[in-house]
Amino acid sequence: MGIDLSPFADVVGPANRGPVWIAGQQSRVAAPSSVRIVTAPSGIYDLQPDEMTVVCGAGTSIGELQDSLTAVGQYVNLPRGTHGSGTVGGALSTGRSDIYRLGRGAIRDTLLQARYINHDGQIVSAGGPTVKNVSGFDLCRLLVGSFGQLGFLGEVILRTRPIPQSSRWFMKNDARQDYVEAVLRRVYRPASVLWDGHTVWFCIEGNSRDCDETIQQLATDLGAPTEVAGPPELNTFPFRESIPPAELAELVQSQLSRGSDQLLVEAGVGIVHRHSPTELKITDKTIELLHQRMLQQFNPTGRLNPGVSLTTGSTV
What positions does the domain FAD-binding PCMH-type occupy (predicted)? Predict the structure, then answer.
């Protein structure tokens, strides 16, 4: 038995109720004061450690959810918000994976099933309740990263994962591109590899003995890295963009040669963290047309989270 979403649907209301925003802890995107605000149901309704799934309301705090999963030796691959833990629905709607995406996967893979409220106040179900579900159109992937403009998440079924036995961060100074490539090539599924052109930080997770052997081999072949408490501070890099992973090295070298705008890149993923924003350029008009058609189908009146750009995730 799932969550009764009827009260939530009634609050959102039909299309003629006008614009409406869904907001959680507002740790990622601030809701405008000029639009009616609603909140999603919260609470953990079903946790199945053997099946590695959990059912919860989209308004549930990520901190609360992670604490409950820790008790059974598991976690869910959802990043916490910049200011506070944030909510499950906020993390999914924003769609931004954290710096562990290289090893843990994209945030969109966490969502197995969603029950959401559409633009006309109707309850819609998408996805399947099991990890192995492969049937039908994968609508859940559209909802992740849609910033609420395709529907307001109410109840979600999430994939959980075992907490790694070991999770350790290392760094190496004077790390050139070849060292970064060596880490990506020689470490089995590194959880994260960060590089600023001078220093590389990387995280390895898994069995403790395997981690020890990996570091010993790297030290023998490439020089010993230094174990550190965690990744570099990302608060100084508040802006991010995505480029093809193959272009990261060229971008870093270009920035170093000009001595401008320091950045930090996620090697193997393609995410660039910057001190200052850059102008977003969409060279493929097909992407813009696709966004427009999705909005026309899912949010024809534009009432759901009006003013958010599906391309940038910012308010306009």
Answer: 1-163
pLDDT tens, residue by residue, 255-303: 887 766 689 999 999 999 998 887 666 556 888 888 889 899 999 999 9
Per-residue pLDDT tens digits for 94-123: 999 999 999 999 999 999 999 999 999 999
> What's the rounded Cα separation, in Å, for the pair 159 and 179?
34
The Cα–Cα gap between 36 and 202 comes to: 44
- Largest separation between any pair of C-alpha atoms in the chain: 68
- Residue 261's pLDDT is what? 61
pLDDT < 50: residue spans in the chain: 315-316
Domains (range + CATH), the chain: 6-163 (3.30.465.10), 166-274 (no CATH)
Query: Strands 200-206 and 192-195: what pairing?
Result: antiparallel
At 7-19, the pLDDT tens digits run 999 999 999 999 9
